[in-house]
Amino acid sequence: MYATSYHRASSVEDAVKLRGEHEEGRYLSGGMTLIATMKQRLAAPSDLIDLRHIPDLKGVSVDGRNVRIGAGTPHADVAGSSMLRSVCPAICALAGMIGDPHVRHMGTIGGSIANNDPAADYPAAMLGLGATIITDRRWLAADDFFTGMFETALEEGEMVTAVTFEAPEKAGYAKFANPASRYALTGVFVAKRGDGVRVAVTGAGADGVFRHAGMEAALAETWSPDSVAGTEVAPADLLSDMHASPDYRANLVKVMAKRAVMAAG
Amino acid sequence: MGVEGIGARVTRKEDKRFLTGKGRYTDDMSVPGMKHACFVRSPYAHARIRGMDTTAAREMPGVIGILDGRQLQADGIGNLICGWMIHSKDGSPMKMGAWRPLAYETVRYVGDAVAIVVADTYAEARDAAEAVTVDYEELPAVTEAVSALQAEAPQIHPEAPGNLIFDWQIGDPEATDRAIASAAHVTEIKIHNNRLSPNPMEPRSTLGIYDAAEEHYTCYTTSQNPHVARLVMSAFYNVAPENKLRVIAPDVGGGFGSKIYIYPEEIVCLWASKKTGVPVKWTSDRTEAFLTDAHGRDHVSTVKMGFDADHRIVGLKVDTIANLGAYMSLFSSAVPTYLYATLLSGQYAIPAIHANVRTVYTNTVPVDAYRGAGRPEATYLLERTMETAARELGLSPAELRRKNFIRSFPYQTPVIMNYDAGDYEASLSAAMQAADWDGFPARKAEAAERGKKRGIGMSCYIEACGIAPSAAVGSLGAGVGLWESAEVRVNAVGTIEVLTGSHSHGQGHETTFAQLVAERLGVPIDSVNIVHGDTDKVQMGMGTYGSRSGAVGMSAVVKALDKVEAKAKKIAAHMMEADENDIVIENGELKVAGTDKTVPWFQVALSAYTAHNLPAGMEPGLKETAFYDPANFTFPAGCYIAEVEVDPETGKTQIVQFVAADDFGNIINPMIVEGQVHGGLAQGIGQALLEEVRYDPESGQLLTASYMDYAMPRADDLPSFDLSHQNTPCPSNPLGIKGCGEAGAIGSPPALINAITDAIGTNDLTMPATPMKVWLAMQANH
């Protein structure tokens, strides 16, 4: 790791101010990716502005079927929220599959989606739920937020403060973990609402998290695990690495989609 | 057996400090004035060094010194060597290329060290190391052994034309060819044994301290064999004479073989301490460990096994190509030869065996012994072949093995080894019973109803441990003898120190060695301390590897205890005015047999040291040393059965049952033995399902340089193991011990692959059987 200066922000305003003062600074919201990257000397921020101790960023609130999760909420709190489980158990289950207990107590939802790792779990949930990403500056639809592998619509210095969504009728997530990293080799989040179905795929896409229109249409017509069977997943759009070929990932997308529907009930 | 003696499940004495974070590892060592080192390493797999510019780096904050290989050579520090001479079948010696501790002409793998930077802090050393400019002329690289033998392959060492280190054989080629030509059935199979990174929990670390006043060096290091490290650094690398070099291996967090060898960093830190005038510490980070710790396995073999009409094996012919990496590591030549091909008879009576082994240089980190070392390769090859043969012959796997088991001992194989004891049928039967082998078809049918493909596979392994008779290994090319030493030092108050040349880096010697003393003298194990790992404290010893500490190290303790007991009995007899032949030692007392006369152990010890009333002519004191040279290898053996369920949609394998039936001879502490088996199984299952070092074949870059890409087994990858022990005591050492450290890693991979191939109905599957590979195999099979 290169030398860096650590700042603990006390409020969103404080964090934004600190970030503005340090051109080469970075927000730190759990650090489950950033710290490891810094240790490998692949990132060298001059300053780290830690968001994990800002009270306003923490916590899950559920109002009817409207859900709001503060950006600084660790995965373990999402996984363990009984209020959230009562309206959207799929996102609790997803959070409980991220990393290991250490990661789940340090990593946060805001950190995860701002990083938009192509194999992270949360981007699939946000896209599948049609969530809204709230920043210190604006509200963004998940469809507009995730713009490519490790890329988001966030501008320089912009900070995620919360995510919000209306709980769907049904939702499910199925993940096939990379045997080494336990990130998603392929993960599929499905959500059913009165106005349609969303299917979001992580871990597999060559450009990061994506929606699968064919599966969405098939499941909107008939909500059944079997509906996935007749859809096509194009290997050409999928990642290729030493862990999985595009053909294998294409197979996993269908299998995980089927299992996500099964999990959703 | 007493509550703390041989056979007792004593909890480990060392665990209190390990579990409370109080262990003292090399990186915990700190001495006044100590500075920190970072190595400048090659980013290329193969390159010529045209020059190096350290001007900018020297100006960086905190930098004390930057030293390179030319300076090292000018100071007379020697090249690293392989300590086991192998001759090719044409009689020529192995072709060892120069391994400079710091390369200055050519780098040959990604991570090859070219300079050391010493600075006030590690961060400063690392910053400065990045500022060192090395002018490399990149050369073509080759990472796979088979490719390295091709005519057009890059030439890695001038000393080894065609990258061939040696072309060695064992056994009778003509007799084997004849046997296979006349066989009623020949099974042919290609075997690939995947390349592994050892991954001990504690990465390598070293602290070099030069004392200018005494012209003396101290080397703290993560070593499995500190005396061998001192010997080699002194005799071959010219670091310092042995009396001017102290090597200390304190608590060591696992080795699995990778900490047997002397690496460049120990030598360079000692030398750098003298050059810079400060103690120099270096600790590997995890990616450095992947890049520079010696790897294991990496064999490609073709096999022919011939059977007669009655399904008895008539001959076995093996051709193996072994990748030794960019340089020959300390024992690298022995692993694919005498630790491998000598085990190719397995548990079977095979009248003719011939194995040809070619070892090859590649642009990868050196390959050497890793848990099992050669024996897993032999077992995997044999047990995959036996399984394949059984399928081809339409026999059950157990039937074919039973038909060919060796059943009388001693048994001389055609490949050197003389098996002294064993009962292979006993382990096979125990394992099949524990696994409910006969109930498998019903379980398979039930799994099919759930959409799962269930398979079962077995492996009957044998290994050679307790290495080994010094004269025998000397005749085979070893540069050292493989005896062990012990000193039993009884203090005046009766407490005891045992100084052993074995080294514990997780095996629990502080407990098991104390149990042996407790058994013999009837004293509590808390009154016994085991001292190891420091060349200034402990007499010359050979260290721990190859499951030898029980069979060899404890045998040395037995010999020393024999001498201590004999003297103690003389003293007790004198004190009680009895005949020494009538003295027995029980429960911490020396008694005159058949009487009520006793004298407590501590009083005998005190008498030995007060020397007020000793038998005439007896020297004071109670302290004895012994060296034990084993009479033979030991031969642990057993049968493992794996049962798996494969998810046909994803190819993911779940181990639903794993049975291990082992014959380790006599057992000192069953709990520790079970722990050793569990650990070995985890690593064997890791090899079978998860682990593989991969290099990019074009650039030679290491692709699996972190746990993001190198899949280590985790607790939830493993089932709950079903263990049992059979016992044919080893006749060639006084405790009847065979050794248990490697068995799990040796026996488990073929059991797993046999089970998976049984489940999916194909024989074409290489390790690691990742979900994608299994899925692809199922697609190809449809």
TrEMBL record, chain A:
Gene3D superfamilies: 3.30.465.10, CO dehydrogenase flavoprotein, C-terminal domain, Uridine Diphospho-n-acetylenolpyruvylglucosamine Reductase, domain 2
Keyword terms of this UniProt record: FAD, Flavoprotein, Oxidoreductase
Domain spans labelled FAD-binding PCMH-type: 1-170
Pfam family, any one: FAD_binding_5
Domain of life of the native organism: Bacteria
GO molecular function: FAD binding; oxidoreductase activity
Protein name (Swiss-Prot/TrEMBL): Carbon monoxide dehydrogenase
UniProtKB/TrEMBL annotation, chain B:
Keywords, ordered alphabetically: Molybdenum, Oxidoreductase
Keyword Nuclease: no
Keyword rRNA-binding: no
Domain Aldehyde oxidase/xanthine dehydrogenase a/b hammerhead: 20-140
Name of the protein in question: Carbon monoxide dehydrogenase
Name of a matching Pfam family: MoCoBD_2
InterPro entries named in the record: Ald_Oxase/Xan_DH_a/b (IPR000674), Ald_Oxase/Xan_DH_a/b_sf (IPR036856), Ald_Oxase/xanthine_DH-like (IPR016208), AldOxase/xan_DH_MoCoBD1 (IPR008274), AldOxase/xan_DH_MoCoBD2 (IPR046867), AldOxase/xan_DH_Mopterin-bd_sf (IPR037165)
Lineage start: Bacteria, Pseudomonadati, Pseudomonadota, Alphaproteobacteria, Hyphomicrobiales
SMART domains the record matches: Ald_Xan_dh_C (SM01008)
Gene Ontology MF terms: iron ion binding; oxidoreductase activity
Organism the protein comes from: Pseudorhizobium pelagicum
